[in-house]
Amino acid sequence: MKLKFLGTGTSQGVPVIGCTCEVCTSKNPKDKRFRSSVMITTEESRKILVDCGPDFREQMLLNHENNVDIALLTHEHNDHVIGLDDMRPLIFKSGKNMPIYCNERVGQEIKKRFPYAFADERYPGAPAFDLHEIENKPFHVLDTEITPIEVTHYKIMILGYKFKNLAYITDASFISDTEKEKLQNLDVLILNCIRKFDPHPAHFVLPDVIALFKELKPKKLFLTHISHHLGLHDIEDKDLPEGMHLAYDGLEIEF
Length: 255
Description:
By secondary structure, this protein is α/β, with parallel strands linked by helices. The chain contains seven helices and 14 strands.
C-alpha cells in the first residue's frame, strides 16, 4: 500500500495570508503546505481519501489523482470537510454516490453543510453522498481493514485511522492509554505537530510528539498538520531525533 500526503498544513495553510515570516516567504516547495489530507492507494489500486479540505481540487490536479473510491473523515472542522463539494466531477464520472465514512456526529454536520447532496430531488449539478456511520472498532472496505483510533482534539473526540502497520492521526491533543495500545511498534506513525514550543489547547507541539515517539517506538514518525511556527522544513527536519521526519506535500511512502 501507499500513502501520499496531499496536504500537511494547518487550517490556515502555509504561507498564511498576509504573513511575511521566513517560512511564509520561503522559496522551498517543502515550505508550501495545503490543508492536511492524505490519499491511500490499496494493494488493488483503490483510492481512499482521508479528509477533504478546501484545497482538495488543487491537490488532486497537482498530484495527477483522478479517482476517489471512498472518503474517510477524521472530524467536521472545515479544513477537513469543506472540499467535499469539489468531488462532483468524480461523482459525475462514476455515476455513483460518493461513499463517506465517519462517526455519527460528523455525519450530521455533513448533512447540515451539504443539504443539497441529500435532497430527494437534487439539482442536476449537485454532488451525491452516501454516509456510512462508523464506531471505534475495525471495519473492512475495499478489501482493506481500517482501525479507527479515538483521540481528543481540544474538547471533542475525533478519529485517526490505522491501515496495516501505519497510523494517521491529525488534530490531536491527547491519546488515551487504551488507544495507545493500537499504536505500539508501528512501522509508520503520522502525528500532527502544529508548532515548536508553545503549548496548544487542541494540537500536539514538538515536545509532545517527541515524547510519544519515545513511548510508542514506531520505526518512523512523520509530522503533519504543520504551521509556519514550526520553522523552515530543511532546518527543522535535520534537528529531529533519528527516525522522525517532517512530512511535506507530495511525499509518498510505502507500507
